[in-house]
Design goal:
Structural class: mainly beta
Strand content: 35-45%
Number of domains: 3
Radius of gyration: 31 Å
């Protein structure tokens, strides 16, 4: 035996072990983390012009509260514990400066407009109770205030129009428990096993039938998770119009299809065996069928989205920059998400795009359901903007921002991570072509867009509000509805008003209508409204005169007046309708932005209704009016509680004024009819419940601006399409071979409830 053989074998074994170890280590080695860059850049100083639109900071809100407490000469109670007979600060938010002032500052080198707040105060503790609005400034150190109520509304706002504070709901609840229910102890105990904690109410609105009424139907439900679909059949009409809570009274009671004068009469009828009782099975606290707890265990992880080279957008204070886009954002306490100074390729295309109102009109054979017309702005779409769950409400890697507001309290509150911004690959091409005739090539562009999102939970419904920015210069405004269906107790002819969702649950038919304000400035402030459509014309074929051809041709019309530009909800509207600039593109066409609406709205409330004028914006799928500072919103927070004498009636905006070469605003209404069905249990899905609008360039550019996107892909049959320099998608195994650096999961939605 060769004496060197053992050494050779030993060395060989060592080499093999080394190679195997390297292979195992390389397989097990963690891929490098993806690149990251700052998402949110805090930039202060005069250079950040978008701050003119920025929401108030908590410190500024506190300064406004202190100023009002010390300078109005009125005793102000904290709204969170105010009685109707008290005076209090109901809300404080940014007073957006006049457009002319802002444009002088942004475009003309003018002075920055003073930073001011708008404060809404309830004065219940005085001989003439009323609601007053003050502009307070300048911030951050207030030195003046001015009453703008008469200027805005033509007079003082009567006190009965005030939106209900959280404290008033608590006082109604206490009245039910301590006064109303005390009159029917036997009925409540034996029918509902009532123990003081197992029932909860939802108040309907508006509160009555005429101006001055403040009577709310309080619909009772089992106090469980998802209580909205657990009605028990009892509804109580509470008259809380008096500023003296001790004078509140029960006006009527409804139980299982029958009406009673009050709870005492119901108790008497029950004890005497003169009413038909429908026992409702008591469900566990998790709600049983209404529980949103998954019925299946976790399995393979759902697909995730990440940015292999870091986010391609930036957020500086309240300003977002994404590719050719830039805009400022904010959050109104009453109307929610709003955008300002929206620019594409550095040119302003819109001054303001904002939510105005969300309306729901219900039907039922129960009093609470049949009288419900919710105007969510009165409750506060911005106030009820909810904290977002990372990875579900928005992509996990999105940028999350806090929202600060002051409403129903003298202290500001913070809704953590209540607004998200992210770029989303929509999984389809924005444009593409595969050529297999004459020349052979492929050209395409991934449809990647920037999304700004907030979600407002107003009572039973959750509204997902999106503004989406595409690479071709289009903007989309979209709302998706989810949450719980509102319900009534199923009895009698209930199936005329909806579908049965569970044993005693009637999912009640209702409409959703959402109104937007779109202040387009296309190629400048002055625009005209133009309609293009089609019509067939009959002609003889020039080469064969005996033959007839039906050919479509373009129709054109300038809409000169507001009346011509007001399109009723179910009426036929020109399919191409656009704001036209005074300038032309390279091909001689007026530069424009087209309005395209996606909606399948239910019918509008009949105009003969005594309350229709309060929601008259919903008459129109589109109405274009002259922009006026005195017409800043299509409705008012005061319309909910007095729709019979509306503080703002949108119908009055349309008075046949000329709209040619003027500063114009488009008021867009989108909506859908919802007939709840069994698949709305446990709650409603967003699929199919999405409506909104698109703003699309129409001859605005000389060609599609997305051709300049860095994301474009093009290769021919003669090129090496696997080469990175030819086809960037071929490089993904290298450029995207990293692991996303996901931050730890946190959630602040249950703090400071």
């Amino acid at each position: 035996m060769n004496p060197k053989l053992p050494y050779v074998l030993l060395v060989g074994a060592a080499v093999i072990i080394f190679i195997l170890s390297c292979m195992l280590l390389s397989r097990g080695r963690r891929s490098p983390s993806c690149e990251s860059q700052p998402r949110v850049v805090v930039k202060t100083g005069s250079a950040s012009q978008s701050l003119v639109f920025a929401d108030l900071t908590p410190e500024e809100m506190a300064q406004v509260v202190r100023y009002l407490q010390g300078n109005l000469g009125a005793q102000l109670v904290d709204a969170s514990r105010a009685k109707p007979s008290d005076s209090c600060i109901a809300s404080v938010e940014l007073q957006v400066p006049a457009k002319a002032e802002v444009l002088r500052f942004l475009d003309g080198g003018g002075a920055r407009p003073p930073r001011e707040a708008l404060a809404v105060l309830y004065f219940g503790n005085q001989p003439d109770p009323n609601v007053t609005e003050y502009v307070v400034g300048p911030l951050p150190t207030p030195a003046y205030h001015r009453d703008v109520t008469v200027q805005k509304y033509g007079g003082k706002v009567p006190y009965h129009r005030r939106p209900m504070l959280g404290s008033e709901y608590e006082q109604v609840e206490a009245f039910l428990e301590m006064v109303a229910f005390a009159a029917a102890p036997t009925f409540l105990k034996e029918v509902f096993e009532y123990d003081g904690t197992n029932m909860v109410f939802q108040a309907t609105a508006p509160h009555g039938f005429q101006s001055g009424d403040r009577k709310s139907w309080c619909v009772l439900f089992q106090n469980v998770s998802g209580f909205f679909v657990h009605p028990v059949g009892l509804e109580v009409l509470v008259d809380h119009s008096s500023l003296d809570i001790s004078r509140w009274a029960v006006s009527r009671v409804f139980y299982n299809g029958q009406y009673y004068r009050d709870m005492a009469q119901l108790e008497s009828a029950y004890v005497q065996g003169r009413i038909s009782v429908e026992k409702v099975r008591r469900v566990p606290r998790d709600g049983d069928f209404s529980s949103m707890k998954p019925r299946a265990p976790s399995s393979a992880l759902f697909p995730l989205q990440y940015e292999p080279q870091g986010p391609r957008y930036s957020v500086r204070n309240n300003r977002v920059v994404f590719q050719a886009w830039s805009f400022a954002f904010g959050m109104s306490v009453s109307t929610g998400l709003r955008l300002f100074d929206i620019r594409h390729k550095r040119e302003r295309v819109a001054y303001e795009i904002s939510v105005q109102e969300a309306l729901s009109v219900y039907g039922s054979n129960c009093p609470g359901g049949m009288s419900t017309r919710y105007m969510d702005g009165s409750f506060g779409i911005g106030r009820y903007t909810s904290p977002l769950v990372r990875g579900v409400d928005c992509p996990y890697s999105a940028t999350y921002l806090d929202v600060h507001y002051l409403a129903h309290s003298q202290l500001s509150r913070t809704s953590k991570s209540a607004l998200c911004i992210f770029e989303q690959n929509l999984g389809s091409p924005l444009r593409r072509h595969y050529s297999n005739l004459q020349s052979f090539y492929y050209g395409g562009l991934v449809n990647s867009a920037l999304v700004v999102r907030s979600i407002a939970t107003v009572g039973n419904y959750d509204y997902v509000w999106d503004f989406i920015f595409y690479q071709n210069g289009a903007i989309e405004g979209k709302v998706q509805a989810t949450g719980y269906a509102s319900s009534s107790f199923l009895h009698g002819d209930g199936l005329r008003y909806g579908n049965r969702l569970w044993e005693h649950t009637l999912g009640t038919i209702h409409t959703h209508s959402v109104n937007y304000k779109v202040d387009l400035d296309v190629g400048g402030v002055k625009n005209s409204l133009v309609a293009h459509d089609m019509a067939f014309e009959m002609t003889r074929a020039p080469w064969s005169p005996e033959q007839q051809i039906e050919r479509p041709r373009l129709t054109k019309k300038v809409l000169d007046t507001e009346d011509q530009a007001a399109f009723r909800l179910q009426s036929k509207m020109p399919r191409y309708i656009y704001f036209a600039a005074n300038s032309k593109n390279k091909w001689g066409h007026q530069r424009g932005y087209r309005i395209q609406i996606t909606s399948f709205a239910g019918d509008h409330v009949p105009e003969a209704s005594s309350m229709e004028r309060a929601i008259s914006w919903a008459r129109y799928q589109l109405a274009v009016t002259r922009r006026k500072e005195e017409e800043p919103t299509s409705t008012s927070i005061y319309n909910q509680n007095d729709p019979w004498t509306p503080t703002v009636a949108f119908a009055d905006f349309i008075n046949n004024e000329t709209i040619t070469n003027e500063d114009l605003v488009a008021w867009i209404t989108a909506g859908f009819l919802h007939i709840p069905h069994s698949e709305d249990i446990p709650n409603t899905v967003t699929v199919g419940n999405s409506v909104g609008f698109l703003l699309r360039p129409y001859n605005y550019y000389d060609l599609d601006p997305s051709i300049y996107s860095h994301d474009g892909v093009f290769f021919t049959s003669e090129q090496d399409f696997t080469a990175c320099e030819i086809n960037p998608v071929a490089c993904l195994p290298q450029t995207a071979a990293c692991l996303p650096n996901f931050p730890p999961f946190t959630y602040g939605g249950f703090q400071n409830m």
